[in-house]
From TrEMBL:
Residues at the catalytic site: 77
Source domain of life: Bacteria
Catalytic activity: UTP + H2O = UMP + diphosphate + H(+); dTTP + H2O = dTMP + diphosphate + H(+)
E.C. designation(s): 3.6.1.9
Organism encoding this protein: Enterocloster hominis (ex Hitch et al. 2024)
Protein name (record): dTTP/UTP pyrophosphatase
Main subcellular location of this protein, as a coarse class: cytoplasm
Site (Important for substrate specificity) residue list: 20, 78, 165
Amino acid sequence: MNRGEQWGGYHVVLASASPRRKELLGQIGIEPEIRPSQLEEETGERRPEQVVMELSRQKAEDIAAGCGAGTMVIGADTVVAVGSEILGKPGTPMRAYEMIGKIQGRTHQVYTGVTVLLCLGEGRTHGVTFAEKTDVHVYPMTPEEMSDYAGCGEPLDKAGAYGIQGRFAAYIKGIDGDYANVVGLPLGRLNQEIKVLLEDREDD
């Protein structure tokens, strides 16, 4: 049984431009169509898990509105949280340095929210939204190490100012939870949620 059949024969659309999420889906045999949402990310939520679920839902719904029946849309959003503070994408080396200073030598959380929508035609969808959390433990870093990483370009477009699959791996002490979740998409949980979603659809 190939992956398309296992996922109900739905045409998979990823509502994200993230190459990392595309690569993760490729690991489990899915080659999605890439159709990133252009929505401005806004939410009134404050808790990290609620923020990522809400934003993933907005992205998926935005793209699903333009999809025909037989399409499966996957939207996702990832944030890094230190205590109650959410760290987004730094954008500049200076901001990256500040964020790295908040996570070095301690444990932080990575939350990814995912929304999966099955497009049924005539604007109807059947879907699920969930969030996954992974604890990440980071070794203490010297100011020189922090400055060197902040200036390498890698952290600028990544939540929390680091990529666990890149150079920052040198400072990862360990994780509790799903590694793929830290990269940007919790594959195991996603697969289980889609199986249930397809079964629910068959029961309708």
